[in-house]
Amino acid sequence: MNRRATPQPLDVRPVTDAELADWTRAVNTGFLRPPTVPDRMLADRRVAFAGSRVSGAFDGGRCVATFRSFDQELTAVGGAAVPADGISNVTVAPTHRRRGLLTRLMADDLAAAKERGDVVATLIAAEYRIYGRYGFGPATTMTEWSIDVPRAGLDPRWAGPLDGGRIDFADGEEIRRLGPQLHERLRRERAGVIDRNEHWWAARTGRLWLYGDAWVEPFFVVYRSADGVVEGMASYRTDEKWSDAKQPLNTAAVNWLTAVTPAAERALWHYLCSIDWIATVRTGWRAPDDLLPLHLPDPRAASITTQADWLWVRVLDVVRALEARTYAASGVSVLEVVDRAGLAGGRFLLDATPDGASCAPTTRDADLTLDVADLATLWLGDETVGRLVSLGRVREERAGAAREADALLRTSGRPWCPDMF
Ligand SMILES: CC(=O)SCCNC(=O)CCNC(=O)[C@H](O)C(C)(C)COP(=O)(O)OP(=O)(O)OC[C@H]1O[C@@H](n2cnc3c(N)ncnc32)[C@H](O)[C@@H]1OP(=O)(O)O
Fold first, then answer.
1. ipTM above 0.85?
2. For 264-270, what is the mean pLDDT?
C-alpha cells in the first residue's frame, strides 16, 4: 500500500549555540549560496550574533527555516532615534515553503518586540510582495548611479580640496577608530539612518568575516576640514579593466560613503571622479534625492542603475512613533489605523506643532483611515497622504484631511538608510 507518512509537527524555537552551524547552512541554502560554512565565518558570526535573537524551525533535527532579529536604532524625522527590532536572515527551505513557517516566526518575533517596547520593526525585503501582509511598508528608497567619468565634466587636473580640507588614505584600524563618531553625527541629522555597532565596523574592515567570499581589503579615504575635523569617509574597490586599444576602463565601486558637510560630500565625489584610470564610478546605495548628479557639471553623466524600495518599517507603537518625529506645521489629525495582527491599531489623535507633538487614543471621528503598513510608508516622509489616497490605500473621511496631514508630515529631504542588514 502506498501511504504517505503523517508529517511530524515542526519544532519552531530559539536556536542553541550548538545549532548555529546547521542554522547558518540553512541560511545559505535559502539564499542560494553554497551551504558550506567555513570555520572562521562561523566563529565570527558567533561573535557578531551574540546579542541577536536567533530562531529557526527544525524537522527531524534538521534546520529548515531561519530568522534573526536584533536591537537596532532608527532615526525618525527630526533626528530622534527610536528602538527598533531589526529583522534579518529570513529563510525557509524550498522543501518546507508555503506551510506558514515564516508567518509563525514573524508573529512570534513581532509579539516579542511589542512586549519589549520596540517602536518599530525593520527589514530589507528580498522581494516586494513578502512583508506587506505582516504590516510592513516600504519606508525608504535606494538609488544607485553609474557615473561616466569622462563625460561628468569635473576638472580632471583636480589635486584635492581647495577649501583647506584634505583627503587621506586610511587603514582599517583608523576607520574603526574614526568611523563610529562620524556615523553618529550622520544619524542625528538624517531620517532613515540606522545605528552601526562595533561588529558593523569590524566586518567592513576585515576583522570579522560574516558574509560572502574571503576578505579583500578595499580602499578607505577620510576627508578632514581645514581645522582637522573628520567630516567624511568612503570605502571603495576597483577592478582592472583596459580596452584593446590600451585605454583604461576601470571602475571604482563605492561600498559606502558618509559625508556630514557639503564640503566633505563635494570633495569625496570629486576625488572618486578624478582618480587616474577610473572611467566609471558606481555610487553604491544612495538616497533618491542625493545631490551627487548635481555635483557634476553634466548631471546626465550619472545614470540611475538601480532604484528600488529599501528599508521596510512595521509600526508597533503608533503613539511613540508619531511623538518621536517632528512636524513641518501645526495641526490636528485623527487617524484610524487598521492592523490585522492586532499589534498597533486603533484611533489616534495627533496634535502636532513644529515644537513638539502629542498623540493619544481618541474617540473623535477619524479624518483618515489607513493600514498600519501605509502609516509606516508615511512616517519617515518618503510618501505623501495625497498619493496614497489616489492609490485607494488611504481613505479620506473628511474633505481636505489629506492635504492638511501632508502639511504636517512634509519633510525637506527624503529619508535614507545607507545600510543593508
Ligand atoms: C529580511 C530578509 O531576510 S529578506 C529574505 C527573505 N528570504 C528569501 O527571499 C529567501 C527565499 N524565500 C524563502 O526563504 C521563503 O519563500 C520565504 C521566507 C520568503 C517565505 O517563507 P514561507 O514559510 O514559504 O512563507 P509562509 O508559508 O509563511 O507564507 C505566508 C504567505 O506569504 C506568501 N509568500 C511567501 N513568500 C512569498 C513571496 N516570495 N512572494 C509572494 N508571496 C509570498 C505565501 O504565499 C503565503 O500567502 P497566503 O497566506 O496568502 O497563502
1. yes
2. 97
Q: Does residue 173 sit in the same domain as residue 302?
A: yes
Can 421 be counted among the known catalytic residues?
yes
Check the CA dihedral 77-119-121-374 and report its sign. Answer: negative
Let me know whether 85 and 102 are in one domain: yes
Pocket lined around ligand 1, Cβ cut-off 6 Å: 30-31, 87-92, 97-103, 123-127, 129-130, 133
Give percent of the chain above pLDDT 90.
96
CA distance linking residue 55 with residue 368, whole number of Å: 38
| Number of neighbours of residue 230 by Cβ within 10 angstroms | 20
Please state the atom number of ligand 1 nearest to the C-alpha of residue 99.
27
Range of the domain at 337: 317-409
User: Do the Cβ atoms of 324 and 120 come closer than 8 Å?
Assistant: no
Q: Is the residue at 65 inside a domain?
A: yes
Asked if 392 and 358 count as a contact pair (C-beta separation under 8 A), the reply is no
| 277 and 151 share one domain | yes
Question: Do residues 254 and 332 share a domain?
Answer: no
Please give the share of the chain, as a percent, with pLDDT higher than 70. 98
Query: Is 90 within any annotated ligand binding site?
Result: yes
Question: 315-328: per-residue pLDDT in tens?
Answer: 999 999 999 999 99
pLDDT tens sequence across 7-34: 668 999 999 999 999 999 999 999 999 9
8 A C-beta contact, residue 193 and residue 237: no
Q: Are residues 171 and 287 in the same domain?
A: yes
The pTM of the full predicted model, rounded to 2 decimals, is 0.96
Structural domains counted in the chain: 3
| Structural domain includes residue 301 | yes
Residue 129 CA to ligand 1 center (angstroms) comes to: 8
